[in-house]
Amino acid sequence: MPHEPDPPPAKKFKPGSVFFRLERNKPGMLLPKKGNVSTPIEVQRKQLPIYQAKPHLLNQLRQLQNAIIIGETGSGKTTQIPQYLYEAGIGRLGMVAITQPRRVAAISLAGRVAEEKRTQIGKLVGYTVRFEDVTSSETKLKFMTDGMLLREAIGDPLLLKYTVVVLDEAHERTVHTDVLFGVVKTAQRRRRELNKIPLKVIVMSATMDVDLFSEYFNKSPVLYLEGRQHPIQIFYTKHQQSDYLQAALVSIFQIHQEAPPAHDILVFMTGQEEIEALARTCRDISKHVPDGCGSMVVLPLYASLPPVQQLRVFQPAPKSCRKVILSTNIAETSVTISGIKYVIDTGMVKAKRFNPDSGLEVLAVQRVSKAQAWQRAGRAGREESGFCYRLYTEQEFDNFLPMTVPEIQRCNLAGVMLQLMALGIPDVMNFDFMSKPSPEAVRSAVDHLELLGAVEKREGQVLLTPLGKKMASFPLEPRYAKTILLSPEYSCSEEILSIVCLLSVDTVLYNPPARRDDVLAARKKFMTSEGDHMTLLNIYRAFKKVSGNKEWCRENFVNSRNMGLVKDVQAQLRDICLKLNLKLESCGSDTASVRRCLAHGMFLNAAELQLDGSYLALDTHQPVTIHPSSVLFQAKPAYVIFNELLHTSRCYMRDLCLVDPDWLLEAAPEYFGRKLHLTRT
Ligand code: CDP
Ligand code: MG
Question: Could you tell me the pTM of the whole model?
């Protein structure tokens, strides 16, 4: 039997905070949706909860240099506040930057705001994400990923182009947002000291826990956009669930049999593969449920889903048909979906985890925090009262961490440290982080950079080497930058650039699960026992040979848009190479050179086959396995390098390349002298 409904989470308000009380849209009345032709866009803007607070809000924002704005997802913070500032003439002397942790969000928000302002994207409203800059000299409102603003800060530490920086989705606490907090705070102070135009900093968040933000930004006032949350009944499972996917499936069909078809279901899961698998199962089962149950449309939602398919979740389902959305944590706050009456929360999320002792960063499926669980539940009460089924017991919930640990405290900091040093931060070990990473993690990052030759330690100081400086010019992880910089030695820079680009954009391969056999048949001709990098390279070469022919892409299950992007990205990386005077040439069919170069750049991610047929990651001696998606899955190569580790039921290596152990030894003799036990001796 379901438990008593849970008390709502205690809301913490800071004394002296400013409140704007907002009326929510009436229950049952759907909020305006994108592309809703019946409601003009001006009317849609006025219907947003934030609209009523506009005069008070502007009054405050005009006076304040720092402000924290809290408001529920969908209240209109991100799309409206930049426009309000612009319309009121605040910060007109420069640009307003609005940062987003997610690339898709930056692009779609810029599109929406341009539409609301009735201008072409790239004019007044633009966006900059990695490898894509859609702005012009007219641009005043610039949506960008937090990573991009960070890169801009390397060339312009005072951020002089901007008069306002809006750090949005601050509650997500991505590593880039966290570093930006420090960079922006410093820029603000320095501009004051140097009598430059002041920089206004607005931090926006969807969750209540903001004491830390306020404290960090000179005790800045918190402006609450208080929306009315409809009551949500929370149910826990009676017993612990050993299989949350099975539990989710059962819950979906239980609701499907009992609830009216207009009540949509949102299920929080961890990633693309399990979402696609459950979607398939749901579609199969829904064909066989008893009559009178109505039909269901099952829609996946995850960051790497092509944009057209992402948009489908926002469209209403056909009449008497239930919408079931299977989503990653992207639906927690980044996007707003109307019609949700039921939330099913598996309590799991895929996130980075880092062990500074071992130096290993893995993507792992793990428990959410209480704050995340509340955020998920909240998605059910946006338009009227709703229900949240938690697939864990109340006791388990009590043991969840109260807040999500910021990413900066659980990721490999090598890239961040390199950027901070390139920013000219004098003492990276003591950077003013809002939440400090552990000293071990910082030390481990510095060791990592030292192994790559990017830094050297001299008299207790950590200094950027000339190589490190070059590495920081690439908007890439240090190991990719290093690999590119090494490639001229192996006469294969063209190939390495292609591979790095292929790995940097969203997946270029399209794998519809229902057509598994066709996919395999089409892909066979590109597969090579040299591994996934070389297979991708073969596909890319074939793509270029047919000049990106759309029909060819369809036949070969290649995502033509993302492949097209690879070409653009390559052109940009090539420009950086030319500025650094790197020799660009192709090694033609000498693919061993390419693998050798990869081995030299990525030696920290090497694994060795053991006598019993298992693999050990050489850096940490952690047992690892080849991911089933790899072309080497059936093979047993003695030595490989891998791109990333994914921890689900086991620790999987994804994207592998076959390498020769001598190359690894060549790359870092001293390091491998310690790590390598050659099984072949
Ligand atoms: O930032 P916050 O979550 O407070 O809201 P927002 O992103 O400004 O979104 C306000 C409303 O704008 C949403 O409820 C959608 O109706 C609409 N919107 C949209 O149609 N398309 C987008 N890409 C973003 C928002
Ligand atoms: Mg927002």
Answer: 0.80
